[in-house]
Amino acid sequence: MTRRTETTKVITLADLLLRHHLGQMRQAAERLDRSRAQMAAIDKAADPADLPEVVAARVDCDYRRWADARKSELNLVLARQTAEVLAARAEAEVAFGRVQALRGIAARLHGKR
Questions:
Q1: Does 3-109 carry CATH code 1.10.3470?
Q2: From which domain of life does this come (predicted)?
Q3: What does pTM read for this prediction?
């Protein structure tokens, strides 16, 4: 195997790894976006329709209690997912740097400056 062939294979593998990390980052960001949308939807409670004032107040109170518990759960999920996105981004940045470095080395090895 020639040096050019070996270099090409290494760059191809590094590029595949970069694509994998970018896909992981994209999926983590999509999960985070879905959780953020769920959090936003909780705040948009439907108004009780045609209920007596006392019953409507009770329904609202029960909803707020549920919403507070759900928001607490979602905050933990959002924190974890944010950390996952940041970690995936860091891995993608490292993979991108590797690809760029390998391309630079290949260019110097093959006389393309």
A1: no
A2: Bacteria
A3: 0.81
